[in-house]
Amino acid sequence: MVTDNKPSLVAINVDGVEHLVPAGANLVDVLGRIGREVPHYCYHPKLPVAGNCRMCLVELGSPMRDRATNEVILENGKPKIGWQPKPAIACATTVSPGLHVKLDSPVVKSCREGVTEMLLVNHPLDCPICDQAGECKLQEYSAEYGRGASRYDHEKNAKPKRSRLGPRVTLDDERCILCSRCVRFTSEVAKDPVLGFVNRGSFNTLTCFPGRELDHNYSLNTVDICPVGALTSTDFRFKMRVWFLKQTPSVDTESSAGANTIVWSREGVIHRITPRRNDAVNDTWMADSGRELYKQVTAENRLRHATVRGARATAEEALAAASEVLAAGPLAVVGSGRLSVEEQGLLARIVSARGAAAYVPAHVGKGDGLLVSEDRTPNFRGALVTGLTAREADADLRALAADIESGKVRALLICREDVTALGLSATLLAKVRTVVIGTHADATTAAAEVVIPGLTVFEKHGTFINCQFRLQAFAQAVPGPAGVMPDALTLARLAGADAGLVWQDLSALPQLTGLDGAKLPAEGVQLDGSAWSRLRFPEGRLLKVATPA
Amino acid sequence: MAVKVVERRPLTLAERTYLPQILAGLRVTWENMVRPPVTLQYPDERPAIPQNYRGVPTLVRDPEGREKCVSCQLCEFVCPPKAIRITPGEIPADAPTAHVEKAPKEFEINMLRCIYCGLCQEVCPEEAIWLQTQYSMTGLSREAMVNDKARLYELGGTLPDAHRKWDVKKTEAERQAGGAH
Fold first, then answer.
1. A interface test, pick of B91, B101, B176 with most A CB neighbours within 10 Å
2. What single DSSP character describes residue A489?
3. Is A469 left (phi over 0), alpha (psi -120 to 50) or beta?
4. Contacts of A66 (CB under 8 A, 6+ apart)
5. Residue-wise pLDDT tens digits, A111-156
6. Which residue of A61, A89, A117, B147 pairs with B151 in a disulfide if CB–CB is 3.0 to 4.6 A?
7. What is the DSSP string of chain B?
C-alpha cells in the first residue's frame, strides 16, 4: 500500500525496452498505458480479475538471484533473466521491479492465435446482423491475431438467440464467449447477482437465475462491457451501426451524481447514450434511466417556437415582450438546478441587477447509493457557486406564492421549472406577468404570458457542477429545433450581457478563479465547496462519495 | 520574321477534273450502303448486355423468396457518393425467416447520386445487392429517381444462392434442439 503522495515507480522491461510504471498496477493496464495493448476479453479495469479468457497470455520473467547470497546473477554484465517456463496471464499480474515481459515472442503469438481459433469454433457468423459489429473485441482481435481462416469443419453449436434477459437487455447466447464480465458486474458493482453460467463444456450458457430478470437500473452496463454482441440493448437493437455515430462528451442530467456520458448521434439524431470513464465520478458505469433521456429531444410536447400571450412569435418579438414584462414591477426569479453554470451566472446577474428574489426548487428522489443521487437536478451546486442562491434548495414555493398573493411580486421569470407542480397554481400565476424559458410544454408554459423555448443538454454546450463540487463540461451533440436560441443567449439578452463573455464574469468568482468552461479537461475540475459545508444537502452515499456531504 | 516562299506544285489533269476524288468518295458511300448496320434502333431495339455489366444496383431475393439483405449497412458505409440510405428493422419473431432477425425496414438508392462503381455489391456480405443489366434510369422528378425498397426488389428479382447460409444454420439449430451436439 502506497501511503505517501509520491507516485512510486518501478522499472519493467517490455520486449527489451525499459519503462517506468506505477508500482502495484495491473500489467494489462500498464501495458495499455505505454502503448503496448495486450488483447483481453474478460479483464476489465473496474471489475475483479477472473482470468478465464486466456487472451492476455504473455511470457514473464524476472532477474535471477543466487539462492545462497540473494545476489542478482549477472550474465555478460546484465542481470540474468529467469523466464517462466509457460506463458502467464497479464491480467492476474501486478507489476514488480525488474519484471520482464515478452509480447511479441512466437509463444505469445501462438497463444493468441490458439485462443482466438477456439473462441471462433462456435461463434456464429452473425457480424452482418450483430449490433456489436464495429466495436466488437472478438472482431478486432480476430482480424489482428486470428489465423484468417477456420479449420473447424463440424457444425457449430446452436444456443438460444434473441432471448430476453430483462426489460432492456437482449441476450444472444451463441455469441457469448463466457468472459463473465456481466456476471461479475451484477454481483460486484450492481450488488444484484442475477446472472450466471449453467451447463458445462460447450453447453456452457449464460442465463438469469430462475425466476429472476436482469431488471435493475444498471442492467445496460452489462451491454457496455460485453466484449462481443451477446448482450445487446433492446432500445438500441438494430437501430444504427456504430460506425456511423458521432461521439459527443456529455453529462448525465438525471441527478447531481453527474455521471460522464458519451452521446452517440448521426445527422442530428441521437441513437444512444453510454457512460464515459471518469474514475473520480462514475468509473465506467451509468444508470439505465439516464440513457433514455435523449428521448426528450423529440418529445411530443417539445417547445419549438416562442409564444407571446398564446400567439406564436419570433424570437425577437418574444425577447422584447419578455424585457417589457420583467420591467413591469417587483420581480421574482425561479431558477433551476437544471440550468447550466453559465445560465445560472447570467440569471444571477438579472437577479442582482433587478433586486429580485430568487428561488431554486428542490427535486428530491430516492438515491440508489451508486450513480443516481437524491438530488434529481444536475447542477444545484452551480446555483450556489454562481450566487443564484445562498441557501438550501427550496422544498416548495410557498413564500413566493404569498408574495404574489400580497402583490409584492408583479413579474415572474421562470427557468426550466414547472412551478404548478411546486405549489404555484395556474390561478396564482394569472395574478402576475410571467416569462417562462423552458424546453417542454407544461401547465406553467400554458399559463405564462411569454414563453421562450430553450435547448436540452444535448443541443447546447456548457458546464454542470455535480454533488462533489466537480465542474464538468458537456458539449453539443445535435442541433436544436430551427430558430430556438440557446438558453444562455436568451438570458444574456435579458440581462443585457454578452453570452460569449460569460466566463469572464464567472472566472471572477472565488470558486471558479482562472477557469474557462470551454477549456475544461475531460475529467472535469474539482472545486472547493467548503464555503457551503454548513448547508444540508439531500445526497447520501454514492459510488465515489463515501460519506454524505 | 523571314518569309519563305514555297513553290506550289501544279495540279495534274486528274486532280483538276476532281473525278478520282468523287469516285473514291462514292465508293465509301456504296460500301456502307450495302454493309449490315452497326447501330441499333434505340429504344425499340436494345443491345445485349453482358452478365458482368455494372448497371443499376438492385436488391435480390433467394430462390425461396427471402429477401437476402439483412441491413448491415456496409453498402451505405462504403458508397462513395452516399447514394444509399437504409433504415434497419427487426424481423418479427413469428415470421418464417425469424432466425435471420434483421432486415431493412426501408432501403433507398438515390440514382441521381449513384456512380455505378459497384462497391456496394463488392462489400455485401450477404450477396444481396447486385448491379445488374438494367442501365437506363429515367424519371420526371428527383423523387422518381430514388429507388425505394419495393422498386429495388422489383428490379432485382431472384438470383441463385450457392451458400444458403441461413437455411443451413436453421436446420442445424433444429437438429440440435433435440439434444444432439
1. B101
2. H
3. left
4. A72, A73
5. 999 999 999 999 998 999 999 999 999 999 999 999 888 999 888 8
6. B147
7. ----PPPPPPPPHHHHH-HHHHHHHHHHHHHHHHSPP-S--TTTS-PPPPTT---SEEE-B-TTS-B------HHHHH-TT--EEEEEEE--TTSTTGGG-EEEEEEEEETTT-----HHHHH-TTS-EEE-S------SSTGGGEE-HHHHHHHH-B---S--HHHHHHHHHHHHHTT--
Nearest to B89 among A155, A157, A238 (CB): A238
pLDDT exceeds 50 at position A2: no
CB A256 within 8 A of CB A373: yes
SS3 A83: strand
For B111, residues 6+ apart whose C-beta sits below 8 A from its C-beta are B56, B83, B137, B139, B145, B146, B147
* CATH number of the domain residue B81 falls in: 3.30.70.3270
A161/B99 Cβ within 8 A: yes
Residue B114, in any domain of the structure = yes
DSSP secondary-structure letter at A55?
A: T
Instruction: Identify which of A125, A129, A244 has the shortest CB distance to residue B102.
Output: A129
Could you tell me if A229 and A132 are in contact, meaning their C-beta atoms sit under 8 angstroms apart?
Answer: yes
Smallest Cα–Cα separation from A256: which of A542, A546, A1, A527? Answer: A542
In this prediction, the residues of chain B whose per-residue pLDDT falls under 50 are none
The amino acid present at B56, given as its one-letter code, is V
pLDDT in tens, A337-350: 999 999 999 999 99
Answer left, alpha or beta for residue B73, where phi above 0 means left and psi between -120 and 50 means alpha.
Answer: left
Contact A244 B88 (CB under 8 A): no
Angstrom distance (rounded) from CA A14 to CA A300: 57
Tell me, what amino acid is at A230?
A
DSSP state of A529: -
DSSP string, A515-527: --GGG--TT-EE-
Q: Does B84 touch chain A (CB under 8 A)?
A: no
How many beta-carbon pairs below 8 A join chains A and B?
Answer: 50
Which pTM does this prediction carry? Answer: 0.91
Residue with cell 451533440: A477
Interface of A with B in 188-207 (CB under 8 A): 202-203
Asked whether A42 and A50 are in contact (CB, 8 A), the reply is yes
Cβ within 8 Å of residue A279, ≥6 positions away: A523
To 10 degrees, the CA torsion angle through A303, A304, A309, A311?
-140
Is residue B50 situated within a structural domain? no
- Inter-residue contact B123 to B75 (CB < 8 Å): yes
Grouping H, G, I as helix, E, B as strand and the rest as coil, residue A246 is strand
Q: Which of residues 133-172 of B touch A (CB under 8 A)?
A: 165, 169, 172
- In angstroms, rounded to a whole number, what is the distance separating the alpha carbons of residues A535 and A549? 9
Hey, is the C-beta of B176 within 8 angstroms of any chain A C-beta?
yes
Whether B39 is covered by a domain: the verdict is: no
The reply to whether B83 touches chain A by the CB within 8 Å rule is: no
Note down the domain range covering B91: 57-156
Verify whether the Cβ–Cβ distance A128 to B126 is below 8 Å: yes
Give the Cβ contact number of residue B38 at 10 Å: 6
The tally of domains found in chain B comes to 1
Residue A1 has pLDDT above 60, yes or no: no
Contact A116, A146 (CB under 8 A): yes
Q: Which residues of A touch B180 (CB under 8 A)?
A: none
Within a domain: residue B21? no
d(CA A77, CA A87): 27
Q: At which residue does the C-alpha cell 463440424 appear?
A: A154
State the nearest Cα–Cα gap between B49 and chain A, in angstroms. Answer: 32
